[in-house]
Amino acid sequence: MARNLVFMLALTSLYIGLAAADWNILNKKVTNGAASGLKSYCESWRINVELNNIKGFELVPQECVDFIKHYMKSSQYTADSERAIEEARLYRSSCCSLEGDGKDAWIFDVDDTLLSTIPYFKKHGFGGEKLNATLLEAWMKQGKAPALDHTLKLFHEIKDKGVKIFLISSKSETLRSATVDNLINVGYHGWCSLILRGLEDDLMKVQQYKSEARQRLIKEGYRIWGITGDQWSSVEGLPAAKRTFKLPNSMYYLS
């Protein structure tokens, strides 16, 4: 009996060890050395995009497109996003001594922060095709982007505390009506201002444009407690917020 128990424990340990060795964030089994090398390379590429070590890429490496597709559609992407939002929620609950003068502010990006573009990228290669602004804007004009539920909850929690919400997006001003309708239709309402790019902003890099938008808010007396966005260009640069919260996005990079 004791010998059988030892044998069963050994088999269990072996199974757990093999399962741990084969597990990866995309829930794919590694069957050979080449697959293992590609898996490691693509996961490393994705992580280094999130760390902002890989900047300004125009395309996801072709060999990694399937990995990025599986990640962006996976429960792991949802869990990663929800963890970032939970950290923002914990920070908000303890950080901010609100003045009650209407000058406490929080900034949100729009695309892939409040609204998801994954339905568009499902048909356009999950970053494996060069971004076609004309096609993307045509899709945005339909106003059918779904909400990211975890951010929707944070949005309303912050708003209900009396913090003014500003939406700063690199979208064109021509998309204002469609964007407003889309946001309202999926549950967002009560923001203070939606700032979009006009013709005078076209030659600016995204980071400069968003930094200047924040500077205008600071000059108006607002205290920016937090920024939530999926792009580094949304959270970098001066003036800075007290804290920034970056959501995952491996499909494209806006600088």
UniProtKB/TrEMBL annotation:
Annotated signal sequence range: 1-21
Pfam families named among the record's database cross-references: Acid_phosphat_B (PF03767)
GO molecular function: acid phosphatase activity
Domain of life: Eukaryota
Keywords: Signal, Storage protein
The family this protein is said to belong to: Belongs to the APS1/VSP family.
Protein function: May function as somatic storage protein during early seedling development.
Protein name stated in the entry: Acid phosphatase 1
